[in-house]
Amino acid sequence: MKTILSLLLIFSFALNLHAQRPASTNYDESKVPEYTLPAVLTTSSGKKVRSAKVWEKSRRPEVLGLFAENIYGQMPLKYDRITYSIINEDRNSMNGKAHLKEVLIEVFNRNKSVKINLTLFIPNQKTGPAPVFLLINNRPKENTDPSRTVKSEFWPAEVLIEGGYAIAAFQVNDLAPDNKETFMNGALQLYPEQLNAENGMRAIGAWAWGASRVMDYFETDPQLDKKRVAVTGHSRGGKASLWAAANDQRFALCISNCSGNTGAALARRQFGERVKVINTVFPHWFNTNYKKYNDNEDQLPVDQHMLISLIAPRPVYATNASEDLWADPRGTFLSLKHAEEVYELYGLKSALPEVQPELNTPIIESPLAYHNREGKHDLTVYDWKQFIRFADSHYWGKKN
């Protein structure tokens, strides 16, 4: 029954999302306007950045500030205290292959609190602390069922455990309900001033903030390798994973699956979903300042290649699906390509080809990785298996 309910919810969401897509949406490459991307390695004063040291000291903080001011909102750093409680545990989950922990993370600030419910599986056969994949889950909680009664391709925990990885997830509604009327009923109760600020944090920012609070917990768990934590997300969760990794350098690897507009895809291409559509349909995702760029992408002081650049030198994997033109597969690939010059400052050579690779041809062994698989807007076992290969290529897996 739970499986049927989950499928119905996903189907309903897909129909609603499709209905919100305007008929005028551009899916024609010949209609992509000419555009000039902001120079990621030129400071606002016009100085060229030629070293990683100067990038980190001068340009990186500047770019991060531009994203916070104009798109994602401020990222509050202070809170009064945080607590962790194991509310359920099974050391022999998955027929003895995994150690299940259900962790309640509670963050307190100004006499209010927000509760984050974390589901975590750790491989029992791993010697030493396990590397971790953390999913920012934007689907119903049944997709990350701790009992494993429901086994969803969206979060194939058994596949990750078999690969030698811990796998964790929290649901976005714990931090900010994905609803324009109620999104403030979560982390934003701890920071009410954000709601009145033009550059204040909104839902995507709250989800990214929540990922960092989960990272706070990971640092306390001796079974986990805090130096090898990958943050990942699909669609709107993929937007949040990029913002989380940009802000929190404790995340050693970032994966963004089918994240599209204001995720990994370039805004200036005006292909698929555009800024005006996302701000109209989901006004609670990004800050008020972002509305200035509705039908006005060329005036943005940043574009999404610069968001990926903020994660350098840490590895980034972005993906697409062939039937998901809404998320602009080509624009995602180009965004990665335009981030290469920042990775080169660290002596990291991208293996991405000059042109977008064919379907089902992942580019894995690279600090900037990419694939475009056949199929729909979704997160699948195929995707997860490539993510494991990507982490393995950076010496994370059980064979390394």
UniProtKB/TrEMBL annotation:
Gene3D superfamilies the record matches: alpha/beta hydrolase
GO molecular function terms noted in the UniProt entry: carboxylic ester hydrolase activity
Origin: domain of life: Bacteria
Membrane-spanning segments: none
PANTHER family xref list: ALPHA/BETA-HYDROLASES SUPERFAMILY PROTEIN, ALPHA_BETA-HYDROLASES SUPERFAMILY PROTEIN
Secretion signal, residue range per the UniProt entry: 1-19
Keywords per UniProt: Hydrolase, Serine esterase, Signal
Residues in coiled coil: none
Annotated protein name in UniProt: 4-O-methyl-glucuronoyl methylesterase-like domain-containing protein
4-O-methyl-glucuronoyl methylesterase-like domain ranges (all copies): 105-347
InterPro entries, sorted: AB_hydrolase_fold (IPR029058), GCE-like_dom (IPR054579)
Source species: Daejeonella rubra
Pfam families in UniProt: GCE_fung
